[in-house]
Amino acid sequence: MRFPVLKLEKRSVCGRSHGCCRMRSPAHRTRDIERQAGYLKPEHCAPPPLRNSSDTMWFIRDGCGIVCGVITWLLIFYAEFVVGFVMLLPAKNILYSLFNGALFSSLAFLALASHAKAMCTDPGAVPKGNATKEFIESLQLKPGQVVYKCPKCCSIKPDRAHHCSVCKRCIKKMDHHCPWVNNCVGESNQKYFVLFTMYISLISLHALILVAFHFVLCFEDDWTKCSNFSPPATVILLILLCFEALLFLIFTAVMFGTQVHSICSDETGIEQLKKEERRWAKKSRWMNLKVVFGHPFSVAWLSPFSKPDHGKADMYQYIV
Ligand SMILES: [Zn+2]
Ligand SMILES: [Zn+2]
């Protein structure tokens, strides 16, 4: 009689970024230690937590990630301060100030909300310690079928899940761990991360345009009239905002493009980096976008407050 095969996962130990992932060829996979299900020793795994993980808020206690997250919020508040108090309040045209103030503040609010949702949403963590004999039996594997076990968090991981050493969990469709949102980017929070990069690039572009207009205004007008601050303070505040906006525009626009490309091609950052062979069904680009942003297409795609409905596309295969 043949037993289902349990493989100890050694191919996807991932740390803070793409760069730390070890490259493994398909040949490595076949060299993983194979064990029969009968040899599985559940006592080596911590028992699964009794409480439902959805009861508690998801938050990664990582010092570096928390500092990066706080810096992100402070930089957005700095931009809001300079745009509002240095540029728009002293402007003579009230309509110009109202329109740009409302637009910038709305985009900044959506960026902050997307950041908070990306940070506090479970990215798709596989239940910890579920590599028990009962769970393996419940999968009703056929003889010879293979499941992967993560030795770090003692979980039976679905296909396309990877272990994150910062989150200390296996994450479904893990793309990368982002310290700026202090969380992994995975199957369940990718929408919020993409929205975060999009809104940050939009407010950065808006801030750059406003700074350019304000410099022109100040050069044409008297420097003492174009700002409530002294001319040197105004120049320093505007130049700092200019640098910040330029840096974030480049960084987040590139990240946004990379994310949309990886969603359309249905290949996560880790899979692209490791050049993993494709074991999952190919779908159209439009369908791949719907898997991340929800069915059907609507204005809710742009809202960080709308939870995407993954539908049937959420089904995962444990069997490789
Ligand atoms: Zn793991
Ligand atoms: Zn992580």
From TrEMBL:
<comment type="similarity">
    <text>Belongs to the DHHC palmitoyltransferase family.</text>
</comment>
<keyword id="KW-0012">Acyltransferase</keyword>
<feature type="transmembrane region" description="Helical">
    <location>
        <begin position="192"/>
        <end position="215"/>
    </location>
</feature>
<feature type="transmembrane region" description="Helical">
    <location>
        <begin position="64"/>
        <end position="88"/>
    </location>
</feature>
<feature type="transmembrane region" description="Helical">
    <location>
        <begin position="94"/>
        <end position="113"/>
    </location>
</feature>
<dbReference type="GO" id="GO:0016020">
    <property type="term" value="C:membrane"/>
</dbReference>
<feature type="domain" description="Palmitoyltransferase DHHC">
    <location>
        <begin position="149"/>
        <end position="275"/>
    </location>
</feature>
<keyword id="KW-0812">Transmembrane</keyword>
<protein>
    <recommendedName>
        <fullName>Palmitoyltransferase</fullName>
        <ecNumber>2.3.1.225</ecNumber>
    </recommendedName>
</protein>
<keyword id="KW-1133">Transmembrane helix</keyword>
<dbReference type="InterPro" id="IPR039859">
    <property type="entry name" value="PFA4/ZDH16/20/ERF2-like"/>
</dbReference>
<dbReference type="Pfam" id="PF01529">
    <property type="entry name" value="DHHC"/>
</dbReference>
<dbReference type="GO" id="GO:0019706">
    <property type="term" value="F:protein-cysteine S-palmitoyltransferase activity"/>
</dbReference>
<feature type="transmembrane region" description="Helical">
    <location>
        <begin position="235"/>
        <end position="256"/>
    </location>
</feature>
<dbReference type="InterPro" id="IPR001594">
    <property type="entry name" value="Palmitoyltrfase_DHHC"/>
</dbReference>
<keyword id="KW-0472">Membrane</keyword>
<keyword id="KW-0808">Transferase</keyword>
